[in-house]
Each structure stands twice: as C-alpha cells, then as structure tokens.
Amino acid sequence: MKRAMLVLEDGTTIYGRGFGAVGETYGELVFNTSMTGYVESLTDPSYTGQILMSTYPLVGNYGVCNEDYESDSIKASGFVVKELCKTPSNWRSQMDLDTFMEQNGVPGIEGVDTRELTKRIREHGTLKCRIAVYGNEEPDIDSLIQRTIAQPGISECEVVDRVSTRTYKRVYDGQGPEIVVIDCGIKNSIIEQLKARNAGVLLVPFNSTSGEILNAGPDAVLISNGPGDPSTLKHTIATARELVGRVPLFGICLGHQIISLALGAKTYKLKFGHRGANHPVIDCETGRVFITSQNHGFAVDKDSLEGTGLEITMLNPNDWTVEGIRHRELNIHSIQFHPEAGPGPHDTHNLFDNMMTIINRSVSR
Amino acid sequence: MPKRDDLKKIMIIGAGPIVIGQACEFDYSGSQACKALKEEGYEVVLVNSNPATIMTDPELSDRTYIEPLTSDILEKIIEKERPCAILPTLGGQTALNLVSELAESGILESYDVELIGANLEAIEKAEDRLKFKEALQKIGVAVPRSAIASSVKSAILIAEEIGYPVIIRPAYTLGGAGGGIAYSLEELKNIVELGINYSRINQVLIEESVLGWKEYELEVMRDSADNVVIICSIENMDPMGVHTGDSITVAPVQTLSDREYQSLRDASLKIIREIGVDTGGSNIQFAVNPTDGRFVAIEMNPRVSRSSALASKATGFPIAKIAAKLAVGLTLPEIPNDITRETPASFEPTIDYVVVKIPKFAFEKFPGSDEILTTQMKSVGEVMAIGRTFEEALQKAVRSLENNTYGLFVDKFEKFSLEEIETYLSVPNSERLFCIASAVRKGMEVSQITKITGIDLWFIHKINNIVEMEKKISAYTMHNLPAQLLEDAKTMGFSDIRIGQLTGSGEKDIRKLRQELEIIPSYKMVDTCAAEFDAKTPYMYSTYEECDDDEPSRNKSKIAIIGSGPNRIGQGIEFDYCCVHACYALRELGIETVMINCNPETVSTDYDTSDRLYFEPLTLEDILNVLERERVAGVIIQFGGQTPLNLAKGLEDNGIPIIGTSLNSIDITEDREKFSLITGKLNIPTPSHGMASSVERAVQVAGIVISVLLIAD
C-alpha cells in the first residue's frame, strides 16, 4: 500500500494513504466545492502550480473518461481527497482515478479530513503545501517542512509558460469570424464553445506581440483563462494594451484580469479564491442571477476601475467581487467566471452567443 | 423585486390527515410557510383538518380553521375570510387537488382569489400526463413513450402497441396511488380499472417501461425574476420501478459525471420554465439508462414534496420557507441564507458529506399485504443519516430504523440458500438491502447482484466493503482488536453493538474500549456551503474524523430532548408535536435546548426549532455520544413516544439525568404486572388479566381470566 504525507508551510503534517504516482509534489493548496467534475478540474490548466483538494468527500465514483479532459493531461500538481473510489461505476468510465493519476505522474493523498483543511484555508488563506507519496521509506518530516517553506509561492512561478502553446496552432477552421486566442492555458470547453458557433480558432503563445497577433488578421482576440498571478504577465499585459481599440477584445478569468491590468486597473489576491460550481453572479443591468463555474485566486480591484474606461457588468453577491466588465466606448468585454463550465452549470453559455453577436456587428462595420 | 403589497391576507391549505404517501413533511412545510409569511407581515389564514400538527397551533397563523378539506367547506371559508391569495404548493397533493377543483368550479374567480406559487395552468401542465408530455416534447426533453387511457379497453390497445411491461400512472394522485407495473394483460386490466377510479379525472397514463434504469431527482427553485437554482440532487439506489418514497436514496448524486449531471440540470431548468411554476420549489424525476446514459424525464411535482423535506434537511436550505417568500414576490438574491447569514439564497447548496434516506415500512401491521415494492408508495415513514462516507451514512440510517438492525445483518437471510437469495433479490422489497449483504457474505459476485437487482455496481461495492470489514473484525476478540481496525470500522459507520456481535462481546465493552483508545466521534456542521463560509447555525452530525466544527456551549443548564424517530403506525406526528413544544417552552424559559432526531420530515429537525440540532440515529450509542459532548443538565424522553422510552434504562445506567417522568414511573406504566399492582392498590377497577411468558402459562391464565381475553405484548 502506498502511504502519503501532506505538509503545510505552517508545519502541519497529515498522514494518509497515497494514490497516483509515487514521489513528491508541491504547490499552493486550494479547495474546490464542486460535487462532480474532478476530471475536468484536474486537467484544467488554471490549476497549474496548485494542489487541488475536493471538499466533496467521495472522489472517483464515476471513473475517468477522456471526453472530459480540459487539456491533454493532469495539470494540478497533486490531489487531496477524503476517500478515493477504487471501484468506479459509469458507462463512460475508461479507467479509475488512481490509474489516471499514476499514468500522469501526479501524486495524491486520501484519508484526509478535508473539511478541517478547508476551514484552515478559509481562515488563514491559501497555504504552500507538499505531498509525498511513498512505499516503506517515510520521508524526513523536518526537511519536507523546510522544503515547503522554501518553495516558491504561486506569484513567483512562471506557470503560464508551462501551459501556453509554443507555436501558432490552428484548432478549428470555422466559417464564421476569425478569433485569435492568446493561450494562457485554455480549457478545451472554451474551444468547444467557439467551434459550436463556427468561429475560426487560432491559438497563439502568451508571449506573442501585438504585431504578430494583428498579422494573423483576427476579427477578435480572446485572452484565455490560465494559472497564476496576472500581474506577473508583463508581456501579455503590454500586448493586450496595444490591442485595445484595434480589435474587439475579450477575456475569460485570467484573460479578464489581464485586460483590466492593461487598462490600468489593479488586481489583488483573494484570501482563498473562488473555486466551485455554485457561485452566483448578478447581471448588474437586469438583476438576474446565474449560477457559474469559478476558478480564480485573484480578482480585479473594484475601486481601481475608476478612470480606466471600464465599468462593472457583473458582481458576485457572496462577497461583491467583480465578475464582469466592459469598456464604455470600445469593444472590450471580459468575465471572471467560466461561462464554458466544464465542470459546472451551463447557465451562461449564452455569453458566447453575445460575444459572436458583438464580433459579427464589428465585422460588418 | 420587493415583496408584493397588494396582497394582505393569504390562505394556506394543509395536507390533512397522515396517510401512506403523505406524512409529516407537510407539517414541516406548512408551518415554515406560515412563519415565513407572518414574518413578512401578511395576514395568514390556515385551513387543515389535522390537529396533531404544529401548523395548526393558534399562534402560527392569524386564523386557523380545523375543518374538513373539501371544496365546499373551503368555499365557505373563502367567503368569510376573503383572502387575496391562496398558496397551494405547501400542502401536498391534497392542497393542489383542492385548489384545482376550486379554480375549475369558478370559485376562485368569483371571490377574486389569486393562486400564488403555482397557477392553475402550471398545475395542470405538470399533473396532467398528456399535457406534461406535450410540454416536454416542445422543449426537446425526452420522455418515455406513452399514451393516455380512460378505459380498460383503450389501455389494452396502448399496451400492445408499446409492449409489456408497461407502467400505469393515474393522473392527479398521491404517492402513485392506483398505479403499478403490468407484465401481462391480466395485470393490466386489474391495475387500470383501479387506477381510473383513483384518478380525479378518471385518466391513466400507459407508459413505456424504463424498469431497471437509474432514477434521479432534482429539487428545483424558481423566483419571479426567473432565477432558477438546484437545491439538491438525489440518486435512488433502487432502480426505476420502485416509488422514490420507497427507495433507499442518497444525496448528492454519486454515479453521474459532471457532464451527465449537467444535462439533467439543464433539462430541469427548461422544464420548470416551460411548465410555468412561477415561484417556489418543484421536484423533477429522471430515469437514466445505465448502459448508454440516455435519459428521460419521468414526472414533476409542482409543489413541495417529501423529497423537498429530505433535500432541506440534507442541505440546510429551508425549501418551504424560501418557497413561501418567493410566492409573495421576493427573489432569491433578496433573501439571506440563514446559515451563513452573509451570503444570499441565490446559490446552489454544496455538501461535503453523504446523506442516505431509508424508508420505514410496517408490513408486519398488515399481515397478508403484498410486500413487493412497486410504483405505488407503501412506506409509512423514513429516516435520514449523514456521514462522511457512504458506508457510514448507510449504517447510521440502518440503525435509525428501529428494526433491531444495528448493521447490515438480518439472520433469516443467512439461512437462505444461494438460490433462495437469488429469487428474493430479483423482486424489490423492504429488506433487500440486508439480503444483498447476505448474498455478498455467501460469495455471490457483486456484478451478479447488480445483474439481478438492477442496483448500480457502485452501491453493491459499498455493501461489499462493509461485509469485508465485518470479516476483518470477526477475526479478533475485543481483547486483541487492533485500534486502527476499530477506528476504520467506526469511519464505516459500524455500531458498537455490531462490533460487539462480531467480536463476541457486548456494546458496553466496545464502548469502553473505544473510550480507552480515544476513538470518539467528531461533530461536523451541515452548512449549505462545504465550509467555504462560516456557518452560524449549529446543525450537527457525527463522524469519525480528526476535528470538531464547533465547541459545545459551556452553558450548564441546557436540556436535551430526544425525538421520536421515524413515523410508523401508532407513532406519528403527534410525538414530534410534543417534542417541538418542549423546545419552545424551554426556550421561553431561557433554557438552551439540544434536539436529537433522525426523521427528516419533521419540524423538530428544523435547525431553528432548537438551539442545537443533532441529526443522529436514536440509539443508546449515538445519543450517549452527543450527551457526553454536550454535558446537558437533563434529558427529556417523555415526549418522543416509545422510541426514547426504550432507551431510558440505558441512559440512566450511564448516569444521564432524566428529567420529567422518571424511569421508575415509566417502568410502572409500561409493565402490565406492576401497573396492575398500582391499580389494585388504588382500588381502580380494570378488566381481569394475567401475565404469561409461555403458551402453557397463557392457557392457564386464560382459564383464570374469564370475562376478557386480552393478549398483549
């Protein structure tokens, strides 16, 4: 049997059973409150550099199906669960979660009081964390804790670099408008939504220049979701700034933060972020509420929007953080949550329709 | 949107007497509705025929009518009271059917009474099988093939077209009354004849069988601004063919991937909008084909149901209360979440535990009744249990049933041959869960059990885990039982009694051993949000993990009240009524109250009835665990019916102070021999009687007792 240990930067040590790959992994420990969708979350590039913890205690019940991947492999650094299901049951399942983690070389720990750890994060904020999965030889705790304290925080990691495309990548030849996506770690579900609306989709690296992007002749540019601290992406922010006013600009999650920074607003780190599939978002114009999928540790500072030309379109009524913005004059729209879902509710799929309407209108002009 | 000020007086219709299929959940929903509307400043007129309810307490409404629930009586009350509106969605099928009659006969119109919550059109669309089918086809949600029959003759033609077996569902009935599954022409004739009689409009639906498909339910809420949220998803362990009220169910869904769950969620949103339930809660049922994931919508209840009560207790989201507030125009984002206080009700609860509901049956009270479970509800009550693993929740629920089952073990099945087991498992019945465990013990393959029962492999594996653990434990005695194994068993919900049975010792010994090893439960909160936000309401459940969610108060004068457990014949809502009033009375005196109960349909398990609520099985072990943590000044057991009385001796032996009626007094009244001594001493005449514990003695006694022969327990 594999054994496992989880340590936090504050010295907390938790023993459990290991699953997935044997070895050591580290990252920022974050929790997700969704009760389904572990395959989508694990493979979501936005979790790069993070150890994912599920608040729902039974994980792996329906196994793993490759149709649910949000990228080509597991992107989270590790997985913390209360109980791993070794005998999944679902007609689509191709393998169990343990095997999936092992094939991807990612360590996991089970048998953890995840509720207690969640409360710890809620009270103290996200914590640096390390998981060691081992056979008989127990690693030295002190040095494990030392390594955890010394490991870089999420803002010091170049996580986007690890998941962005290296080359120009045409993923879909649509008959509709041409969308260039600045790939900071895009999820497959976003591409699927664009494809479903027959858009041409070209992925470009996160460090592309505005000249390169405009040369590709886009009808619109979408800055994707992705991991880490937006303020460290100086190059992408500069590119976005140069694109302002020259092409319709859209952003999702990290892309939304990059657009805000490009126009002079500020971002800040949330104490423990929003990660789950039950977050309400209020449309400021209509007062309507939508249930959304969210995964972000940073947010746009509401007060810093003053004077940037940006205005708030959507808010989260749990804590009144900014969920959507648009430019008062220019074709710039972005949202903090994930309208593509994967995992989560489909309440806001229509935002992709709105996006296409805006692009088509701008093209016909 | 602010609440409506054009409505001054609102009438609420209760569900009437408790019947199979309609129990105290409507007291729970009705009393929440009364409180919520009063809180918002409306004048509330309540009509109900069942006086053993909290909702008919005079202080809950401005005016309470305890009258028969018939349309002519209601008309008289409407004439006298002139309410602006009727809220019919919280009084079960009874209230819904009544307002349909009132609306159709023009009474509502003539007195200018508005229906709030659900209008007549929505009720019709949801309840009329044909209209429901048409509505769903319009929005592209698949339904089983079906047709309406108003005569046996047309039913036969339809069944031949669809192919047997077929499901018969009468329109406008409660708990599937008058419905069933027909495998043959003969069965069809019998069921249809009955069903047409049961139906208010003499109509039945003959439906393609999706027997064996997985069954799911979603609890949906909608407000007047068209915001829709899912409160809870429920997976039935028993596949299609067993009424959901008779099925073992688990929340949240366990064996659907996000993709599949979201497709049910999408369909639910479309359905509630198309049917047009303006505001409030609805329950939508789906069947999912286990081999290819294809799903069909089965039915919708455009009202609060037993599943809503379960969903409320399972998540901490008070569906009935919120439904009442939505009915008067408030919207979800305007209503705060009681539990977190800081976040609004416009969200979807997420849970970090597993909830299992097991129905309670009373076939022993009706010798000769058919024990096979079908689409017609037969259970008389239910229990709910919460745990951090499925095994834990399941085993806690099993011992909550008060069937003398303290684990997945019923002796009679152990004596069955494999062949007998196979036969028994092939038909759904009230004890199938225990028979599955015996099948596993006898070495039947899990896949084989799934094949025979249609129960998803996931559940059978979990039962297998429990049996495997039993095997491990039974290799030891209590003297050499490894601490780790004991702890592992407790995380899987094993009771001390069961561990005692397996190790050849007693409950007391295991309890002592556990305490020496410091294997004691921790208590976690039901908080609607999986700990994302700080919860303010101490609604607790036990589990075996590292940490507690809160510290019990240091208050030394607090009192615990032990509830009455599941409804059964002879022990119903009246005991819950008493327990709730005990809480209210103590609260009035400024005394902190602790409630322990396991029945999700009740007012006593509302988180605002007591100061601290423990949702726990009513067994000595589970109650002692709570009491040792809470250190109460006293325990009241006299209001919970037979359930807590049976525990009295155990509690007293463990030094728990029982207040109110003493154990001794209880003993005298319960023990017929001691009681007769008292009546004799007091010269109170009683029928002549005698006690016997053997047949021989009984014959002797009967000879002595000439006037009356009373055979009592």
TrEMBL record, chain A:
Q: Where is this region: CPSase?
A: 1-177
Source organism, top-level taxon: Archaea
Q: Which Gene3D superfamilies match?
A: 3.40.50.880, Carbamoyl-phosphate synthase small subunit, N-terminal domain
Give the matching SMART domains: CPSase_sm_chain
Domain Carbamoyl-phosphate synthase small subunit N-terminal positions = 2-132
Indicate yes or no for the key word Metal-binding: no
Q: What is its EC number?
A: 6.3.5.5
Which chemical reaction does it catalyze? L-glutamine + H2O = L-glutamate + NH4(+); hydrogencarbonate + L-glutamine + 2 ATP + H2O = carbamoyl phosphate + L-glutamate + 2 ADP + phosphate + 2 H(+)
Matching SUPFAM superfamilies, A to Z? Carbamoyl phosphate synthetase, small subunit N-terminal domain, Class I glutamine amidotransferase-like
Q: Which residues bind L-glutamine?
A: S46, G226, G228, L254, Q257, N295, G297, F298
Q: Which family does it belong to?
A: Belongs to the CarA family.
The protein's name: Carbamoyl phosphate synthase small chain
Q: Which organism is it from?
A: Methanolobus halotolerans
Q: What is the lineage of its organism?
A: Archaea, Methanobacteriati, Methanobacteriota, Stenosarchaea group, Methanomicrobia
